[in-house]
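Suppose a classmate hands you a notebook page containing two proteins, each written out with its sequence and a corresponding row of C-alpha coordinates. How would you begin to make sense of it? This section walks through that situation. The first entry is reproduced here exactly as it would appear on such a page.
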Amino acid sequence: MASQDSSSGSDGGSELGRFLRARRTQTTPDQVGLTVGAGLRRTPGLRREELATLAGISIDYYVRLERGKETRPSPSVLDALARALQLDDQHHHHLRELAARAARYAPEPPPAPSRTVRPHLKLLLETLRPSPAYVISRSMDLLAWNPGGLALYAGLDDWPAKQRNLARYFFLHPAARGLFPDWDKQVRACVARLRALAGTAPDAPDLTALVGELLVKSPDFAKLWERYDVTGRKSAHKTFHHPHVGTITLAAQSMQLEGTPGQRLGVYLAEPGTPDHDAMLLLDMTAPQPAARPSATDEANPHTPS
Protein backbone atom coordinates (compact mmCIF):
# COMPACT_ATOMS: atom_id res chain seq x y z
CA MET A 1 0.00 0.00 0.00
CA ALA A 2 1.39 3.36 -0.96
CA SER A 3 0.70 5.24 2.25
CA GLN A 4 2.61 5.79 5.44
CA ASP A 5 -0.50 4.70 7.29
CA SER A 6 -0.97 1.59 5.20
CA SER A 7 -0.52 -1.91 6.52
CA SER A 8 1.95 -3.17 3.98
CA GLY A 9 4.72 -4.02 6.40
CA SER A 10 5.04 -6.85 8.91
CA ASP A 11 5.86 -4.49 11.81
CA GLY A 12 3.13 -5.31 14.29
CA GLY A 13 4.40 -2.67 16.73
CA SER A 14 3.89 0.07 14.16
CA GLU A 15 0.36 -1.12 13.44
CA LEU A 16 -0.41 -1.06 17.16
CA GLY A 17 1.02 2.45 17.34
CA ARG A 18 -1.02 3.62 14.37
CA PHE A 19 -4.18 2.37 16.02
CA LEU A 20 -3.42 4.14 19.30
CA ARG A 21 -2.58 7.39 17.55
CA ALA A 22 -5.76 7.28 15.45
CA ARG A 23 -7.96 6.70 18.50
CA ARG A 24 -6.09 9.34 20.55
CA THR A 25 -6.49 12.06 17.94
CA GLN A 26 -10.23 11.32 17.70
CA THR A 27 -10.84 11.47 21.47
CA THR A 28 -11.45 15.02 22.72
CA PRO A 29 -10.59 16.29 26.21
CA ASP A 30 -14.29 16.94 26.83
CA GLN A 31 -15.11 13.30 26.17
CA VAL A 32 -12.80 12.12 28.95
CA GLY A 33 -13.59 14.90 31.41
CA LEU A 34 -10.45 17.01 30.99
CA THR A 35 -10.63 20.77 31.43
CA VAL A 36 -8.74 22.58 28.70
CA GLY A 37 -7.40 26.07 29.25
CA ALA A 38 -7.86 28.96 26.88
CA GLY A 39 -5.70 29.10 23.81
CA LEU A 40 -5.17 27.18 20.58
CA ARG A 41 -4.48 23.45 20.75
CA ARG A 42 -2.31 22.26 17.90
CA THR A 43 -2.99 18.59 18.62
CA PRO A 44 -6.32 17.16 17.43
CA GLY A 45 -7.84 15.17 20.25
CA LEU A 46 -5.77 14.22 23.28
CA ARG A 47 -2.09 14.97 23.69
CA ARG A 48 0.19 12.00 24.35
CA GLU A 49 0.88 13.14 27.90
CA GLU A 50 -2.83 13.51 28.59
CA LEU A 51 -3.57 9.98 27.47
CA ALA A 52 -0.60 8.59 29.41
CA THR A 53 -1.83 10.32 32.58
CA LEU A 54 -5.37 9.03 32.10
CA ALA A 55 -4.07 5.49 31.61
CA GLY A 56 -1.66 5.69 34.55
CA ILE A 57 1.50 5.00 32.52
CA SER A 58 4.59 7.09 31.90
CA ILE A 59 4.69 9.42 28.94
CA ASP A 60 7.94 7.83 27.78
CA TYR A 61 6.37 4.37 27.77
CA TYR A 62 3.33 5.59 25.87
CA VAL A 63 5.47 7.37 23.25
CA ARG A 64 7.39 4.12 22.74
CA LEU A 65 4.10 2.28 22.23
CA GLU A 66 2.83 4.79 19.69
CA ARG A 67 6.13 4.78 17.79
CA GLY A 68 6.16 0.97 17.60
CA LYS A 69 9.28 0.61 19.76
CA GLU A 70 7.47 -1.08 22.66
CA THR A 71 5.71 -4.24 21.49
CA ARG A 72 4.81 -6.13 24.67
CA PRO A 73 2.33 -4.07 26.69
CA SER A 74 0.73 -6.00 29.53
CA PRO A 75 -2.99 -6.80 29.55
CA SER A 76 -3.47 -4.27 32.35
CA VAL A 77 -1.84 -1.52 30.28
CA LEU A 78 -4.04 -2.38 27.30
CA ASP A 79 -7.14 -2.31 29.48
CA ALA A 80 -6.11 1.03 30.97
CA LEU A 81 -5.60 2.54 27.53
CA ALA A 82 -8.95 1.15 26.39
CA ARG A 83 -10.67 2.77 29.38
CA ALA A 84 -8.89 6.07 28.85
CA LEU A 85 -9.84 6.13 25.16
CA GLN A 86 -13.37 4.93 25.96
CA LEU A 87 -13.09 2.13 23.41
CA ASP A 88 -16.14 0.01 22.76
CA ASP A 89 -15.88 -3.78 23.01
CA GLN A 90 -14.99 -4.28 19.35
CA HIS A 91 -12.19 -1.68 19.36
CA HIS A 92 -10.94 -3.03 22.70
CA HIS A 93 -10.78 -6.54 21.23
CA HIS A 94 -8.96 -5.20 18.18
CA LEU A 95 -6.40 -3.47 20.43
CA ARG A 96 -5.68 -6.80 22.13
CA GLU A 97 -5.32 -8.56 18.78
CA LEU A 98 -2.84 -5.94 17.58
CA ALA A 99 -0.82 -6.25 20.79
CA ALA A 100 -0.75 -10.05 20.49
CA ARG A 101 0.51 -9.77 16.95
CA ALA A 102 3.13 -7.17 17.90
CA ALA A 103 4.47 -9.47 20.63
CA ARG A 104 5.23 -12.32 18.22
CA TYR A 105 8.84 -12.60 17.12
CA ALA A 106 7.90 -13.80 13.63
CA PRO A 107 4.54 -12.78 12.19
CA GLU A 108 2.54 -15.66 10.80
CA PRO A 109 2.16 -15.46 7.02
CA PRO A 110 -1.44 -14.87 6.01
CA PRO A 111 -3.20 -17.85 4.45
CA ALA A 112 -3.70 -17.58 0.73
CA PRO A 113 -7.34 -16.70 0.15
CA SER A 114 -9.27 -19.14 -1.99
CA ARG A 115 -11.27 -17.72 -4.88
CA THR A 116 -12.75 -21.11 -5.77
CA VAL A 117 -16.46 -21.42 -5.05
CA ARG A 118 -17.60 -25.00 -4.59
CA PRO A 119 -20.23 -26.25 -7.06
CA HIS A 120 -22.88 -26.88 -4.41
CA LEU A 121 -22.63 -23.23 -3.33
CA LYS A 122 -23.37 -22.11 -6.87
CA LEU A 123 -26.39 -24.41 -6.78
CA LEU A 124 -27.42 -22.82 -3.48
CA LEU A 125 -27.32 -19.38 -5.07
CA GLU A 126 -29.74 -20.57 -7.75
CA THR A 127 -32.12 -22.13 -5.23
CA LEU A 128 -32.26 -18.84 -3.32
CA ARG A 129 -33.81 -17.01 -6.29
CA PRO A 130 -35.58 -14.62 -6.48
CA SER A 131 -33.67 -13.44 -3.40
CA PRO A 132 -30.49 -11.65 -4.50
CA ALA A 133 -27.51 -13.63 -3.21
CA TYR A 134 -23.75 -13.86 -3.72
CA VAL A 135 -20.56 -15.34 -2.31
CA ILE A 136 -17.98 -12.77 -1.27
CA SER A 137 -14.33 -13.01 -0.22
CA ARG A 138 -12.79 -11.53 2.93
CA SER A 139 -11.66 -8.51 0.91
CA MET A 140 -15.14 -8.10 -0.61
CA ASP A 141 -14.50 -9.60 -4.05
CA LEU A 142 -17.66 -11.03 -5.61
CA LEU A 143 -16.81 -14.66 -6.35
CA ALA A 144 -20.22 -16.00 -7.40
CA TRP A 145 -23.77 -14.64 -7.61
CA ASN A 146 -27.28 -15.28 -8.86
CA PRO A 147 -28.87 -12.83 -11.33
CA GLY A 148 -30.40 -10.58 -8.66
CA GLY A 149 -27.27 -10.66 -6.53
CA LEU A 150 -25.29 -8.95 -9.28
CA ALA A 151 -28.08 -6.76 -10.66
CA LEU A 152 -28.90 -5.32 -7.22
CA TYR A 153 -25.65 -3.32 -7.39
CA ALA A 154 -26.63 -1.28 -10.43
CA GLY A 155 -23.85 -1.00 -12.99
CA LEU A 156 -21.55 -3.54 -11.34
CA ASP A 157 -22.02 -5.89 -14.30
CA ASP A 158 -20.33 -3.22 -16.46
CA TRP A 159 -17.03 -4.25 -14.89
CA PRO A 160 -15.13 -7.45 -15.76
CA ALA A 161 -15.75 -10.29 -13.30
CA LYS A 162 -12.29 -10.02 -11.73
CA GLN A 163 -12.82 -6.32 -11.00
CA ARG A 164 -16.15 -6.81 -9.18
CA ASN A 165 -15.48 -5.89 -5.59
CA LEU A 166 -18.01 -4.19 -3.33
CA ALA A 167 -15.50 -1.82 -1.71
CA ARG A 168 -14.26 -0.78 -5.15
CA TYR A 169 -17.89 -0.36 -6.24
CA PHE A 170 -18.84 1.82 -3.24
CA PHE A 171 -15.99 4.26 -3.80
CA LEU A 172 -15.23 4.17 -7.53
CA HIS A 173 -18.41 3.29 -9.44
CA PRO A 174 -20.40 6.38 -10.51
CA ALA A 175 -23.74 4.66 -9.74
CA ALA A 176 -22.97 3.81 -6.10
CA ARG A 177 -23.79 7.15 -4.46
CA GLY A 178 -27.16 7.31 -6.14
CA LEU A 179 -27.98 3.70 -5.31
CA PHE A 180 -27.67 4.07 -1.53
CA PRO A 181 -29.59 6.82 0.30
CA ASP A 182 -27.25 6.19 3.26
CA TRP A 183 -24.05 5.96 1.23
CA ASP A 184 -21.99 7.59 4.03
CA LYS A 185 -23.06 4.89 6.49
CA GLN A 186 -22.43 2.11 3.98
CA VAL A 187 -18.89 3.22 3.20
CA ARG A 188 -17.97 3.71 6.87
CA ALA A 189 -18.99 0.12 7.58
CA CYS A 190 -17.07 -1.05 4.51
CA VAL A 191 -13.83 0.66 5.55
CA ALA A 192 -14.19 -0.50 9.15
CA ARG A 193 -14.42 -4.09 7.95
CA LEU A 194 -11.28 -3.74 5.83
CA ARG A 195 -9.44 -1.91 8.65
CA ALA A 196 -10.20 -4.73 11.09
CA LEU A 197 -8.81 -7.26 8.62
CA ALA A 198 -5.73 -5.13 7.92
CA GLY A 199 -4.87 -4.97 11.61
CA THR A 200 -4.48 -8.72 11.94
CA ALA A 201 -3.52 -9.70 8.37
CA PRO A 202 -1.65 -6.64 7.05
CA ASP A 203 0.41 -8.63 4.54
CA ALA A 204 -2.57 -10.31 2.89
CA PRO A 205 -1.97 -9.73 -0.85
CA ASP A 206 -5.66 -9.45 -1.73
CA LEU A 207 -6.13 -6.75 0.89
CA THR A 208 -2.96 -4.75 0.24
CA ALA A 209 -3.71 -4.50 -3.48
CA LEU A 210 -7.27 -3.33 -2.91
CA VAL A 211 -6.46 -0.79 -0.18
CA GLY A 212 -3.49 0.53 -2.13
CA GLU A 213 -5.72 1.15 -5.15
CA LEU A 214 -8.44 2.87 -3.13
CA LEU A 215 -5.99 5.07 -1.20
CA VAL A 216 -4.73 6.42 -4.52
CA LYS A 217 -8.06 6.73 -6.34
CA SER A 218 -10.53 7.79 -3.63
CA PRO A 219 -9.98 10.71 -1.23
CA ASP A 220 -13.13 9.60 0.62
CA PHE A 221 -11.61 6.19 1.26
CA ALA A 222 -8.27 7.68 2.32
CA LYS A 223 -9.98 9.95 4.86
CA LEU A 224 -11.96 7.09 6.40
CA TRP A 225 -8.92 4.78 6.38
CA GLU A 226 -6.99 7.35 8.42
CA ARG A 227 -9.64 7.24 11.17
CA TYR A 228 -8.92 3.56 11.96
CA ASP A 229 -12.48 2.65 12.89
CA VAL A 230 -12.99 -1.10 13.19
CA THR A 231 -16.61 -1.08 14.34
CA GLY A 232 -18.92 -1.33 11.37
CA ARG A 233 -22.13 -3.10 12.24
CA LYS A 234 -24.39 -3.77 9.29
CA SER A 235 -27.99 -2.68 9.18
CA ALA A 236 -30.65 -5.36 9.35
CA HIS A 237 -32.30 -3.73 6.32
CA LYS A 238 -30.89 -1.90 3.32
CA THR A 239 -32.64 0.50 0.98
CA PHE A 240 -31.67 0.81 -2.68
CA HIS A 241 -32.78 3.52 -5.11
CA HIS A 242 -32.50 1.15 -8.05
CA PRO A 243 -32.65 2.60 -11.57
CA HIS A 244 -34.58 -0.40 -12.95
CA VAL A 245 -37.01 -1.43 -10.20
CA GLY A 246 -37.36 1.73 -8.11
CA THR A 247 -36.86 2.07 -4.38
CA ILE A 248 -36.58 -1.30 -2.67
CA THR A 249 -35.90 -2.14 1.00
CA LEU A 250 -34.62 -5.63 1.75
CA ALA A 251 -33.60 -7.54 4.85
CA ALA A 252 -29.88 -8.33 4.73
CA GLN A 253 -28.24 -11.48 6.05
CA SER A 254 -24.60 -12.55 5.89
CA MET A 255 -23.01 -15.77 7.12
CA GLN A 256 -19.60 -17.43 7.14
CA LEU A 257 -19.31 -20.48 4.87
CA GLU A 258 -17.84 -23.70 6.21
CA GLY A 259 -14.72 -25.13 4.63
CA THR A 260 -13.83 -21.98 2.69
CA PRO A 261 -11.89 -19.58 4.96
CA GLY A 262 -12.84 -15.97 4.35
CA GLN A 263 -15.81 -16.64 2.11
CA ARG A 264 -19.26 -15.41 3.14
CA LEU A 265 -22.75 -15.81 1.76
CA GLY A 266 -24.82 -12.63 1.44
CA VAL A 267 -28.59 -12.82 0.94
CA TYR A 268 -31.34 -10.18 0.65
CA LEU A 269 -34.95 -11.01 1.48
CA ALA A 270 -38.42 -9.46 1.31
CA GLU A 271 -41.78 -10.51 2.72
CA PRO A 272 -43.95 -12.16 0.01
CA GLY A 273 -46.85 -10.04 -1.15
CA THR A 274 -45.15 -6.73 -0.44
CA PRO A 275 -44.07 -4.10 -3.00
CA ASP A 276 -40.46 -4.84 -2.07
CA HIS A 277 -40.95 -8.53 -2.91
CA ASP A 278 -42.56 -7.58 -6.23
CA ALA A 279 -39.59 -5.35 -7.03
CA MET A 280 -37.23 -8.18 -6.07
CA LEU A 281 -39.07 -10.56 -8.44
CA LEU A 282 -38.83 -7.98 -11.23
CA LEU A 283 -35.11 -7.54 -10.61
CA ASP A 284 -34.55 -11.31 -10.80
CA MET A 285 -36.59 -11.67 -14.01
CA THR A 286 -35.01 -8.75 -15.86
CA ALA A 287 -31.39 -9.36 -14.82
CA PRO A 288 -29.07 -11.12 -17.29
CA GLN A 289 -29.61 -14.84 -16.80
CA PRO A 290 -26.84 -17.42 -16.29
CA ALA A 291 -25.78 -19.45 -19.30
CA ALA A 292 -27.50 -22.79 -19.64
CA ARG A 293 -25.60 -25.85 -18.56
CA PRO A 294 -23.95 -27.68 -21.47
CA SER A 295 -25.62 -30.90 -22.53
CA ALA A 296 -23.81 -34.24 -22.48
CA THR A 297 -23.21 -33.84 -26.23
CA ASP A 298 -21.75 -30.37 -25.72
CA GLU A 299 -19.45 -31.64 -22.96
CA ALA A 300 -18.19 -34.36 -25.28
CA ASN A 301 -17.66 -31.75 -28.02
CA PRO A 302 -16.62 -28.60 -26.14
CA HIS A 303 -15.87 -26.64 -29.30
CA THR A 304 -19.30 -27.14 -30.84
CA PRO A 305 -20.79 -23.68 -31.54
CA SER A 306 -23.87 -22.81 -29.56
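The notebook's second entry, a different protein, reads as follows.
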Amino acid sequence: MIYTVTLNPSVDYIVEVEEFTLGGLNRMKRDMKLPGGKGINVSRVLKQLGVENTATGFLGGFTGGYIEQWLRQEMIASDFVHIADDTRINIKLKAGEETEINGAGPEISLPETASLLHKLDALKQGDVVILSGSTPPSLGGDFYSRLIAVCKQKGSEFVIDTTGQALKDALPLGPLLVKPNHHELAELFGAQISTRAEIITYGRKLLEAGARHVLVSMAGEGALFISEQGVYHAAAPAGQVKNSVGAGDSMIAGFVGTLSLTGDVLEAFRAGVASGSATAFSDDLADRQKIEQLRPLVVISQL
Protein backbone atom coordinates (compact mmCIF):
# COMPACT_ATOMS: atom_id res chain seq x y z
CA MET A 1 0.00 0.00 0.00
CA ILE A 2 1.03 3.57 -0.66
CA TYR A 3 0.20 6.08 2.07
CA THR A 4 0.33 9.85 1.71
CA VAL A 5 0.77 11.98 4.83
CA THR A 6 -0.38 15.61 4.76
CA LEU A 7 0.30 17.32 8.07
CA ASN A 8 -1.00 20.75 7.04
CA PRO A 9 -3.70 20.35 4.37
CA SER A 10 -5.90 23.18 3.19
CA VAL A 11 -8.92 24.18 1.23
CA ASP A 12 -7.46 26.16 -1.66
CA TYR A 13 -9.78 29.04 -2.50
CA ILE A 14 -8.87 30.22 -5.99
CA VAL A 15 -10.25 33.65 -6.92
CA GLU A 16 -9.90 35.24 -10.35
CA VAL A 17 -10.59 38.94 -10.99
CA GLU A 18 -10.13 41.06 -14.09
CA GLU A 19 -8.07 43.64 -12.24
CA PHE A 20 -7.29 43.83 -8.53
CA THR A 21 -7.66 47.20 -6.74
CA LEU A 22 -6.03 47.29 -3.32
CA GLY A 23 -8.37 48.95 -0.81
CA GLY A 24 -11.30 48.95 -3.23
CA LEU A 25 -14.23 46.71 -4.18
CA ASN A 26 -13.26 43.81 -6.44
CA ARG A 27 -15.72 41.46 -8.13
CA MET A 28 -14.88 37.86 -8.91
CA LYS A 29 -14.74 36.68 -12.47
CA ARG A 30 -14.46 33.05 -11.37
CA ASP A 31 -13.71 31.07 -8.24
CA MET A 32 -12.93 27.47 -7.28
CA LYS A 33 -12.54 25.60 -4.01
CA LEU A 34 -10.20 22.62 -4.15
CA PRO A 35 -8.70 20.24 -1.61
CA GLY A 36 -5.11 21.32 -1.03
CA GLY A 37 -1.99 19.93 0.54
CA LYS A 38 0.89 18.21 -1.20
CA GLY A 39 0.12 14.70 0.02
CA ILE A 40 -3.55 15.04 -0.88
CA ASN A 41 -2.52 16.14 -4.38
CA VAL A 42 -0.32 13.03 -4.65
CA SER A 43 -3.22 10.81 -3.58
CA ARG A 44 -5.56 12.33 -6.16
CA VAL A 45 -3.11 11.81 -9.04
CA LEU A 46 -2.22 8.28 -7.88
CA LYS A 47 -5.93 7.48 -8.10
CA GLN A 48 -6.05 8.84 -11.68
CA LEU A 49 -3.17 6.49 -12.51
CA GLY A 50 -5.09 3.52 -11.10
CA VAL A 51 -2.86 3.16 -8.06
CA GLU A 52 -4.75 2.53 -4.83
CA ASN A 53 -3.53 4.54 -1.86
CA THR A 54 -4.61 5.84 1.52
CA ALA A 55 -4.43 9.51 2.50
CA THR A 56 -3.76 10.36 6.13
CA GLY A 57 -2.69 13.32 8.26
CA PHE A 58 -4.74 15.87 10.23
CA LEU A 59 -8.15 17.31 9.31
CA GLY A 60 -10.50 19.47 11.36
CA GLY A 61 -13.64 21.60 11.20
CA PHE A 62 -15.87 22.37 8.22
CA THR A 63 -12.82 22.75 5.98
CA GLY A 64 -11.54 19.31 6.93
CA GLY A 65 -15.00 17.88 6.23
CA TYR A 66 -14.97 19.49 2.77
CA ILE A 67 -11.68 17.76 1.96
CA GLU A 68 -12.88 14.36 3.21
CA GLN A 69 -16.08 14.66 1.17
CA TRP A 70 -14.07 15.46 -1.96
CA LEU A 71 -11.82 12.42 -1.43
CA ARG A 72 -14.86 10.19 -0.95
CA GLN A 73 -16.33 11.47 -4.22
CA GLU A 74 -13.07 10.52 -5.98
CA MET A 75 -13.14 7.13 -4.18
CA ILE A 76 -9.81 7.73 -2.46
CA ALA A 77 -9.37 5.90 0.83
CA SER A 78 -8.62 8.19 3.78
CA ASP A 79 -7.74 7.67 7.41
CA PHE A 80 -7.17 11.12 8.91
CA VAL A 81 -6.86 12.12 12.54
CA HIS A 82 -9.77 14.46 13.29
CA ILE A 83 -8.55 17.47 15.25
CA ALA A 84 -10.34 20.15 17.26
CA ASP A 85 -8.97 23.10 15.28
CA ASP A 86 -9.99 23.95 11.70
CA THR A 87 -7.97 22.93 8.68
CA ARG A 88 -6.58 26.10 7.09
CA ILE A 89 -7.76 27.97 3.99
CA ASN A 90 -5.21 29.15 1.41
CA ILE A 91 -6.20 31.98 -0.92
CA LYS A 92 -4.83 32.13 -4.45
CA LEU A 93 -5.72 35.43 -6.10
CA LYS A 94 -5.33 35.54 -9.89
CA ALA A 95 -5.30 38.99 -11.45
CA GLY A 96 -2.89 38.78 -14.35
CA GLU A 97 -0.32 37.31 -11.98
CA GLU A 98 -0.99 35.06 -9.00
CA THR A 99 -0.83 36.18 -5.36
CA GLU A 100 -0.98 33.59 -2.58
CA ILE A 101 -2.07 34.04 1.04
CA ASN A 102 -1.44 30.82 2.98
CA GLY A 103 -2.80 30.04 6.42
CA ALA A 104 -0.30 29.03 9.11
CA GLY A 105 -2.18 25.88 10.04
CA PRO A 106 -4.07 24.54 13.05
CA GLU A 107 -2.92 23.81 16.57
CA ILE A 108 -2.26 20.08 16.94
CA SER A 109 -2.57 18.72 20.48
CA LEU A 110 -0.34 16.01 21.97
CA PRO A 111 -3.16 13.40 21.93
CA GLU A 112 -3.87 14.22 18.27
CA THR A 113 -0.17 13.85 17.47
CA ALA A 114 -0.09 10.49 19.24
CA SER A 115 -3.13 9.34 17.22
CA LEU A 116 -1.29 9.84 13.92
CA LEU A 117 1.78 7.99 15.16
CA HIS A 118 -0.52 5.18 16.29
CA LYS A 119 -2.10 4.95 12.82
CA LEU A 120 1.36 4.41 11.31
CA ASP A 121 1.84 1.39 13.55
CA ALA A 122 -0.18 -0.47 10.90
CA LEU A 123 2.61 -0.06 8.33
CA LYS A 124 4.14 -3.21 6.87
CA GLN A 125 7.32 -4.09 5.04
CA GLY A 126 6.99 -3.03 1.40
CA ASP A 127 4.59 -0.18 2.06
CA VAL A 128 5.56 3.27 0.76
CA VAL A 129 4.85 6.40 2.80
CA ILE A 130 4.93 9.76 0.99
CA LEU A 131 5.62 12.66 3.37
CA SER A 132 4.83 15.98 1.71
CA GLY A 133 4.57 19.64 2.50
CA SER A 134 4.81 21.99 5.42
CA THR A 135 4.41 21.16 9.10
CA PRO A 136 2.03 23.12 11.37
CA PRO A 137 4.18 25.15 13.79
CA SER A 138 2.65 23.38 16.80
CA LEU A 139 4.24 20.06 15.75
CA GLY A 140 7.82 21.34 16.01
CA GLY A 141 10.67 21.00 13.55
CA ASP A 142 11.46 17.30 14.09
CA PHE A 143 8.08 15.72 13.43
CA TYR A 144 9.03 14.31 10.03
CA SER A 145 11.99 12.59 11.71
CA ARG A 146 9.57 10.94 14.14
CA LEU A 147 7.40 9.69 11.26
CA ILE A 148 10.43 8.40 9.37
CA ALA A 149 11.58 6.52 12.48
CA VAL A 150 8.26 4.63 12.46
CA CYS A 151 8.67 3.84 8.74
CA LYS A 152 12.16 2.47 9.32
CA GLN A 153 11.01 0.40 12.28
CA LYS A 154 8.24 -1.17 10.19
CA GLY A 155 10.44 -1.81 7.15
CA SER A 156 8.50 0.62 4.95
CA GLU A 157 9.96 2.85 2.25
CA PHE A 158 9.49 6.60 2.51
CA VAL A 159 9.49 9.52 0.10
CA ILE A 160 9.98 13.02 1.44
CA ASP A 161 9.03 16.21 -0.35
CA THR A 162 9.93 19.13 1.87
CA THR A 163 12.72 21.67 2.16
CA GLY A 164 15.40 22.91 4.52
CA GLN A 165 16.53 21.12 7.66
CA ALA A 166 13.74 18.53 7.56
CA LEU A 167 15.02 17.33 4.18
CA LYS A 168 18.65 17.36 5.34
CA ASP A 169 17.74 15.28 8.39
CA ALA A 170 15.90 12.73 6.23
CA LEU A 171 18.68 12.10 3.70
CA PRO A 172 20.90 9.80 5.84
CA LEU A 173 17.83 7.62 6.48
CA GLY A 174 17.62 6.60 2.81
CA PRO A 175 14.49 8.09 1.21
CA LEU A 176 13.26 6.24 -1.87
CA LEU A 177 12.87 9.58 -3.66
CA VAL A 178 13.51 13.28 -3.13
CA LYS A 179 12.25 15.90 -5.59
CA PRO A 180 13.62 19.41 -5.15
CA ASN A 181 13.26 21.96 -7.91
CA HIS A 182 16.46 23.69 -8.95
CA HIS A 183 15.76 26.68 -6.68
CA GLU A 184 15.23 24.44 -3.65
CA LEU A 185 18.39 22.50 -4.50
CA ALA A 186 20.41 25.73 -4.53
CA GLU A 187 18.89 26.82 -1.22
CA LEU A 188 19.59 23.43 0.37
CA PHE A 189 23.32 23.73 -0.32
CA GLY A 190 23.58 27.51 -0.03
CA ALA A 191 24.89 27.63 -3.59
CA GLN A 192 24.33 29.52 -6.81
CA ILE A 193 23.08 27.05 -9.42
CA SER A 194 22.61 28.28 -12.97
CA THR A 195 23.63 25.41 -15.30
CA ARG A 196 22.52 21.85 -15.87
CA ALA A 197 25.98 20.62 -14.93
CA GLU A 198 25.70 22.36 -11.55
CA ILE A 199 22.28 20.83 -10.96
CA ILE A 200 23.74 17.39 -11.65
CA THR A 201 26.67 18.03 -9.31
CA TYR A 202 24.41 18.97 -6.42
CA GLY A 203 21.85 16.30 -7.29
CA ARG A 204 24.58 13.70 -6.93
CA LYS A 205 25.35 15.15 -3.50
CA LEU A 206 21.82 14.15 -2.49
CA LEU A 207 22.61 10.59 -3.58
CA GLU A 208 25.84 10.65 -1.61
CA ALA A 209 23.89 11.86 1.43
CA GLY A 210 21.55 8.86 1.25
CA ALA A 211 18.72 9.41 -1.27
CA ARG A 212 18.13 6.48 -3.63
CA HIS A 213 16.53 8.46 -6.46
CA VAL A 214 16.57 12.19 -7.16
CA LEU A 215 14.19 14.14 -9.40
CA VAL A 216 14.97 17.78 -10.08
CA SER A 217 12.22 19.74 -11.81
CA MET A 218 13.31 22.68 -13.94
CA ALA A 219 9.97 24.14 -15.12
CA GLY A 220 10.07 24.66 -18.90
CA GLU A 221 13.52 23.05 -19.11
CA GLY A 222 12.06 19.67 -18.16
CA ALA A 223 13.49 17.51 -15.41
CA LEU A 224 16.57 15.54 -14.43
CA PHE A 225 16.58 12.06 -12.93
CA ILE A 226 19.69 11.08 -10.99
CA SER A 227 20.33 7.66 -9.51
CA GLU A 228 23.08 5.06 -9.25
CA GLN A 229 21.86 3.88 -12.66
CA GLY A 230 22.87 7.17 -14.31
CA VAL A 231 21.74 10.70 -15.09
CA TYR A 232 18.81 11.32 -17.46
CA HIS A 233 17.06 14.37 -18.85
CA ALA A 234 13.46 14.62 -19.99
CA ALA A 235 12.29 17.58 -22.04
CA ALA A 236 8.96 19.05 -20.96
CA PRO A 237 6.14 18.44 -23.45
CA ALA A 238 4.84 21.57 -25.14
CA GLY A 239 1.59 23.08 -23.88
CA GLN A 240 -0.12 26.11 -22.38
CA VAL A 241 0.67 26.45 -18.69
CA LYS A 242 -2.53 27.21 -16.74
CA ASN A 243 -1.71 26.05 -13.24
CA SER A 244 1.28 26.51 -10.94
CA VAL A 245 -0.12 24.36 -8.12
CA GLY A 246 0.45 20.63 -7.79
CA ALA A 247 2.78 19.92 -10.72
CA GLY A 248 5.57 18.73 -8.45
CA ASP A 249 3.16 16.60 -6.43
CA SER A 250 1.88 15.10 -9.66
CA MET A 251 5.44 14.28 -10.69
CA ILE A 252 5.95 12.37 -7.45
CA ALA A 253 2.66 10.51 -7.96
CA GLY A 254 3.59 9.56 -11.52
CA PHE A 255 7.04 8.34 -10.48
CA VAL A 256 6.11 6.43 -7.33
CA GLY A 257 2.88 5.01 -8.74
CA THR A 258 4.50 3.75 -11.94
CA LEU A 259 7.53 2.40 -10.05
CA SER A 260 5.19 0.44 -7.79
CA LEU A 261 3.39 -1.04 -10.81
CA THR A 262 6.36 -1.75 -13.10
CA GLY A 263 9.63 -1.56 -11.16
CA ASP A 264 11.07 0.37 -14.13
CA VAL A 265 12.72 3.61 -12.98
CA LEU A 266 12.88 5.16 -16.46
CA GLU A 267 9.21 4.48 -17.13
CA ALA A 268 8.55 5.95 -13.69
CA PHE A 269 10.52 9.05 -14.69
CA ARG A 270 8.56 9.33 -17.94
CA ALA A 271 5.24 9.01 -16.10
CA GLY A 272 6.37 11.56 -13.52
CA VAL A 273 7.19 14.18 -16.15
CA ALA A 274 3.95 13.45 -18.04
CA SER A 275 1.91 13.77 -14.83
CA GLY A 276 3.58 17.02 -13.77
CA SER A 277 3.11 18.52 -17.23
CA ALA A 278 -0.52 17.39 -17.41
CA THR A 279 -1.27 19.23 -14.17
CA ALA A 280 0.54 22.36 -15.38
CA PHE A 281 -1.71 22.34 -18.46
CA SER A 282 -4.95 21.89 -16.40
CA ASP A 283 -7.13 24.07 -14.17
CA ASP A 284 -7.00 21.40 -11.46
CA LEU A 285 -4.77 18.34 -11.13
CA ALA A 286 -4.06 16.05 -14.06
CA ASP A 287 -6.55 13.42 -15.12
CA ARG A 288 -5.64 10.04 -16.55
CA GLN A 289 -6.54 10.94 -20.13
CA LYS A 290 -4.23 13.95 -20.22
CA ILE A 291 -1.38 12.01 -18.59
CA GLU A 292 -1.68 9.23 -21.14
CA GLN A 293 -1.75 11.74 -24.01
CA LEU A 294 1.52 13.30 -22.84
CA ARG A 295 3.37 10.14 -21.78
CA PRO A 296 4.60 9.16 -25.29
CA LEU A 297 5.73 12.78 -25.90
CA VAL A 298 8.25 12.67 -23.04
CA VAL A 299 11.65 12.04 -24.62
CA ILE A 300 14.34 10.80 -22.22
CA SER A 301 18.04 11.04 -22.98
CA GLN A 302 20.98 9.78 -20.93
CA LEU A 303 23.60 12.38 -20.08
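A careful reader of the second entry would note: The mean pLDDT is 93.
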